[in-house]
Amino acid sequence: MDFNYSEEQQMLADSLRRFIDTEYTFDKRRKTARGGGGMDRAAWAQLADMGVLGLTVPAEYGGFGESAASQLVVQRELGRGLVLEPVTPSAVMAAAVLNAHGSNAQKAHWLPAIATGQRVVTLAYLEPTTRYRLETARASAERKGDGYIINGNKSLAWHGEAADAFLLTARIAGTNELALFLVPRDAAGLTVRGYPTMDGLRAADLVLQNVAVDTTAVVGDAADGLTALLHGIDHGIAALCAEAAGAMEKLIEITAEYLRTRQQFGKPLAAFQALQHRMADMLVQKELALSMAYVAAQALDESDPAQRRRMLSAAKVTVAKAGRLVGQQAVQLHGGMGMTDELEVGDYFKRLTMVDVLLGDSDYHLQRYGEAMAA
């Protein structure tokens, strides 16, 4: 995989950076985050116009059919701006699942809508008792006539409050099959309760009470739901790693500027060698995270499942560790101001902290790495 930016990728990165610097200002982001909606529909439409939402959607469904390398370019820039909108859960994860496992009818109906920003689709697979063990889902789907009746609870659906449909898991009653269903937000019996997360984003809990869907709601074969779900999560991990690398990059720039302007004992803080060493440590960790984001993107093209899991889990653990160090150092180097809500640094710190727990924490991925090595 070639990670040198092509001319088109560089133009896209430049366009996104200009958009974030001039229109997606930090004050505007905070207003959106605290407004309770979780996303700015005008910004969402602009991202669609720039091709961000349809980047990896095949051309026959209104997208651009770009590779994981182009997705890394986009997510890195989105991370620099801490973009709130549900690009990763909808345009990356849901689009990947539908493109690889959806029926022709599901692709034709949902992929163009995702690419144009008309619809938001997110995954709902976590439950209060499952932690990250996806195969232990307790939500059930009972066959009835030409469809299914789904009952159960889902928690922490990423951007679930803004979603128009959910890709959710349920176990087929009487079997060990874990199926993936595409359930519209307005389905009778589905209740969605949204709430803010620590990093300013939004999540939602779902309650499904006798939700009736027909067989066309099943994504792929009923027995392949876990495979389809993991495909989307793998793409999400790669996107999240690139986003975190971009956030670290911007946070280091903010911290360096603060050290150049803040005076102590008649000279800028940047002149003190001890602080220079700490900045150097942050830069090393950022470069390591960016390198592992490349590894995660390359893993998506890996045909061996065990090798793909090893690469993605290694990237996730390394990026989470780097993000934690960069975020903590940035707060400390800002001194007492770093603990206030007045500066941007706190927002970046919270986002980088959440990178660890999203899509599997470090403990989970270390165990998954070990299992993949054993396999």
TrEMBL record:
Residues 127-211 form the Acyl-CoA oxidase/dehydrogenase middle domain. It comes from Cupriavidus basilensis. Keywords: FAD, Flavoprotein, Oxidoreductase. It comes from the Bacteria. InterPro entries: Acyl-CoA_Oxase/DH_mid-dom, Acyl-CoA_Oxase/DH_mid-dom_sf, AcylCo_DH-like_C, AcylCo_DH/oxidase_C, AcylCoA_DH/ox_N, AcylCoA_DH/ox_N_sf, AcylCoA_DH/oxidase_NM_dom_sf. Gene3D superfamilies: Acyl-CoA dehydrogenase/oxidase, N-terminal domain, Butyryl-CoA Dehydrogenase, subunit A, domain 2, Butyryl-CoA Dehydrogenase, subunit A, domain 3. Transmembrane segments: none annotated. Pfam families: Acyl-CoA_dh_1 (PF00441), Acyl-CoA_dh_M (PF02770), Acyl-CoA_dh_N (PF02771). This is Acyl-CoA dehydrogenase. Its cofactor is FAD. Belongs to the acyl-CoA dehydrogenase family. Residues 224-373 form the Acyl-CoA dehydrogenase/oxidase C-terminal domain. Residues 6-118 form the Acyl-CoA dehydrogenase/oxidase N-terminal domain.
